[in-house]
Amino acid sequence: MITGERANFIAHDWVDALNQRDLERVLRIYSDSVRHTTPCVTRSGKNHFTIRGKRSLRQYFAKTMQTRRSVFFEIEGIMTGVDSFSIIYKTNNRKKGLEVMFLDEEGKVYRSFAYYN
Predict the structure, then answer these.
(1) How many domains are there within the chain?
(2) What is the 3-state composition of the chain as percent helix, strand, coil, each rounded to the nearest 5?
(3) Residue 16 class from Cβ within 10 Å (0-12 exposed, 13-18 middle, 19+ buried)?
(4) What digits encode the pLDDT tens for the residues 51-75?
(5) CATH assignment of the domain containing 50
(6) Are the beta carbons of 109 and 8 closer than 8 angstroms?
(7) FRET pair for 110, CA 20 to 30 Å: which of 1, 20, 56, 59?
(8) Are the CB atoms for 117 and 96 separated by under 8 Å?
């Protein structure tokens, strides 16, 4: 089971790294074989919604950080489950999001889902 303390640490580290546009720090929490599903993938020219592997996730986050330089994130809540946790956040442009992250035995995110309003 994921503790609230662990989820809190990962969530705040992730959001802080995104706000600082620190790509390497963002990617540190993910496993090499990560699968990330998000409706935003279609904006990057893909015809599916799941990014497979850290190399592809790197490209996705790099492009997002480059094109959305004025967007900053603020955590509104963190919820824990058995093998996953969720981050509820808002952005400075009044959008809301939810990230659900599943951790492997090494504590790395191997599966994640993004939801937006």
Answers:
(1) 1
(2) 35, 35, 30
(3) middle
(4) 999 999 999 999 989 888 888 999 9
(5) 3.10.450.50
(6) no
(7) 20
(8) yes
